[in-house]
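INTERNAL AUDIT FORM
Audit reference: QA-55
Scope: verify that the stored structure record matches its stored sequence.
Auditor: D.O.
Record contents follow.
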Amino acid sequence: MADKLWGGRFSKSTDKKVDDFNSSIRFDKRMYRQDIKGSIAHATMLGRQGIIPSDDAKKIVDELKNILNDIENGKIEFLIDAEDIHMNIEKILTDRIGDAGKRLHTGRSRNDQVALDIRMYLMDETEEIRKMLIHTLTIICDLAFDHTETIMPGYTHLQKAQPVTFAHHLMAYFEMFKRDEERLRDSIKRTNVMPLGSGALAATTYPLDREFVAGELGFSGVTKNSLDGVSDRDFVIEFASCLSIIMMHLSRFCEELILWSSNEFSFVEMDDAFSTGSSIMPQKKNPDVAELIRGKTGRVYGHLMGLLTTMKGIPLAYNKDMQEDKEPIFDSIDTVKLCLPVFCDMLSTMTVKKDNMLKGSKGGFTNATDVADYLVKKGLPFREAHAVVGKMVAYAILNDKALDEFSEAEFLQFSDIIENDIYDAISMTTCVNDRKIIGGPAKETVLKAIKEAREYIEKL
């Protein structure tokens, strides 16, 4: 077992199938940059503390930089039987500089090493996804600015409710993705704590300078308990939760785009570059991008549940089960990073059918609440006004007409306080623009919201 860095205690080689089963290099190799960066900081500290000779520390650091350069230039092939990225790099280092390389692992375990690597990796990826979300927020603001006068029906229970503008609807999603960006920023606080120095579970007798290593790597602090330092994966689960919520918001938006692009709604049309056809039906134009994003949401949810399930029964401290944290979170990251850019491009290139949206807002009695509000302003208690308008709607359905198509005489059948000014009061434009309180759909309110949103983005 001399070929294994941990093989001293063993007298028999590992079964080949076990080597393959046990190995994580297939997926954890993506953390090579973080692993080498962590090892450089650790070796530098070992030399400064006099734990290893300063000359050996320098050799280690210099060669680790060479290894990083060789990996990025495709000159290194990782080995399955070296198990993981940590032991692959250590083996390459030792092969190149001999005994000095064997000193690198002094005062650390793969348990705290992998905890370090995954934290560093997730912080890097969090920043990448934050940038994508900021771009998404910008796209939404720009599109909303173009549609502050595009009136469309708002829905509850998927039934027409009250008129809003497309801009107002878009800015609802701005608020969702804004919270997503805030959640990611907040989650970094709990990821940005350095576990190196926890050892396998009980720290070490070597006089490590953990704060120095944390400073070298840009961590805000160090973990306070060695058992928790190696066994904590809360930050992975929290990140997976953040990604799941991002996908949920993308999926909700895509569901609406899918509905709106149907013939029944015909509110939007996807650009040809973001649509597909049918192999048998020549007329089809399918919103496949939106459908795929909606579908991929399920896999990210599944990874979150898988991580929770993996961690739920693990006693302190490290257990091999925890190797199963990486594939789910890596795939979740890849999925979100795949979806956000294509979603933004799909959104910014689609055609908005303003006339159809306006026509849709005029159906379904979306101004019924405004008729009730009109009666209230004339002195009728709201509950009585509600009942009166309910009877109007029943009459309108029976006679196949909209409320604003009533004659004055028809209005007066239901209330003698109605005057000719009702027509302006219940027009779609008035219905929207009179709702000018904070959070409302009025043009002036939405323009102010867009302005504030853009100022918010600039500060990120």
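Auditor finding: record pair retrieved intact. The chain has three domains: 14-106, 116-156+164-204+224-357, 360-459.
Action required: none
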